[in-house]
Amino acid sequence: MEHADFNQNLLDFLNESPTPWHAVQAMTRQLDAAGFQALDEREEWHLDEGQGYYVVRNGSSLVAFRTGKGDPARAGIRMVGAHTDSPCLKVKPNPELRRKGFFQVGVEVYGGVLLNPWFDRDLSLAGRVTCLDGEGKVRDLLVNFARPVAFIPSLAIHLDREANSNRSVNAQTDLPPVMMQVPENDQTTLNELLIQQLRKQQPDVDVRKVLGYELSFYDAQPASLIGLNEEFIASARLDNLLSCYIGLRSLLDTSGQKPALLVCNDHEEVGSMSAEGAQGPFLGAVLERWCGAGRGRAIARSMMVSADNAHGIHPNFMDKHDENHGPLINQGPVIKVNHNQRYATNSRSAALYRHISDELGLPCQTFVVRSDMGCGSTIGPLTAANLGVTTLDIGVPQLGMHSVREMTGTRDSYTLYQVLREFMQWDAVN
User: Fold this and answer.
1) pLDDT at 418 over 90
2) Would you say 318 and 328 are in contact if contact means Cβ atoms under 8 Å apart?
3) CA-to-CA dists, residue 98 to 71, 175, 190, 355, 386, angstroms
4) Using CA atoms, how far apart are residues 427 and 167, in angstroms rounded to an integer?
5) What are the UniProt keywords, alphabetically (predicted)?
6) What's the mean per-residue pLDDT of the chain?
7) Does 226 fall in a domain?
């Protein structure tokens, strides 16, 4: 796959993945097309050598793997991890607000959202709806309005003279998006609007009643190449759907000779403590069923690459980085190091990545947070602690992390893909 094709396919993936459920659905479509077989956790598994498989939990987390040609207890497993969720505004269970003829919905902040960029954006709405169909069955359906349906207007500067110097956002009162105008006696519910949309999108399903939902607003502007030379990618959810896509393409395009695995967990942005999060049992359960009694030996010979975007140096805020560790966009993926174990990188895992990168003639960089600042984290330390597997934290540099729209470089994603594809077929990983 060439550089330009890779980036165009990445943009397509970002645009069709407004929520974790849509992202997993998009990934499973590609896995199906490549001949991977879906596994059901409720059933017995019969795994064949040299075959690809995948498992989905909660519709929002995925583990896909190639069994390879050898016993994983002897060959080890080349693992790549990412997360499917991004900071956003999620709809509350009883969201309807009617104020001065405006129909609004209450929202809850999910994760560490950079709130100010959400104002004055064309927003759409998507997620999972659990409903009752005409046959009395409870079903999960994905919904996506796929067009601008909401807006969070800023307060005019004439009414807030300190807006440019001292503006704060009240998550309860300032964020409910405006969705439409309604008459004074209006009793429209969001559930009714969801049923209408589901019937448009899935006319073959007789949706009778909405029983629950998990919905989030998202920026309706599609992902795009930007810059005079189109050297940047601008999009929502680059953190961390970009890494999900890189991991997926690496797994699909590897030789398949070695045992290799991709895990994409939900709930990283809120701590990963869930049945399908990195602190939960999902990955361990899959490995137990794949490797059986050889799981411990397999893990001891394995390595995990936790791929999650890194803080690229911002030209307007260069003092926010350590002077020797300011990653530059389009200068290579970033090995992330933190000796307080906010990242799981050690000298051995970093050395293997650098060796593969050097063998391919590709660049890489290193990030260490300033010693006087706090450090974020990833699924890397959680997975390393749960499994006891050697782990590397790496990611492409980006700007605007946790904003409604973020920016990365066009070359870095393809570089990381090339290295991870090679890693997934490397002879010895540990």
Assistant:
1) yes
2) no
3) 61, 14, 12, 60, 47
4) 55
5) Aminopeptidase, Hydrolase, Metal-binding, Metalloprotease, Protease, Zinc
6) 95
7) no
Q: Which amino acid does the sequence have at 71?
A: D
pLDDT in tens, 44-86: 999 999 999 999 999 999 999 999 998 999 999 999 999 999 9
Nearest C-alpha neighbor of 34 from the set 240, 258, 259, 254: 254
Is 262 in contact with 65 (CB distance < 8 Å)?
Answer: yes
Instruction: Decide if 138 is inside a domain.
Output: yes
3-state secondary structure of 363: coil
Pairing of strands 138-144, 390-395: unpaired
Above pLDDT 70, what percent of the chain?
A: 99
Range(s) of the domain holding residue 314: 3-86+236-423
Q: Which has the higher per-residue pLDDT, 134 or 417?
A: 417
Query: pLDDT tens digits, residue range 357-408?
Result: 999 999 999 988 888 888 888 999 999 999 999 999 999 999 999 999 999 9
Sign of CA dihedral 31, 37, 43, 47: negative
Tell me the three-class secondary structure of 304-333, residue by residue: EEEECCEECCCCCCHHHCCCCCCCCCCCCC
CA–CA dist 81, 96 (Å, integer): 38
What are 227's two structure tokens? 């810059």
The backbone torsions φ and ψ at residue 193, rounded to the nearest 5 degrees and listed phi first, read: -65, -35
What total number of domains does the chain contain? 2
139 and 260 co-located in one domain: no
* CATH number reported for the structural domain that contains residue 369 in this entry: 3.40.630.10
Which of 185, 219, 253 marks a domain boundary?
A: 219
Q: How many CA atoms lie within 13 A of 27 on its CB side?
A: 38
**Token pair listed for 217:** 């607003």
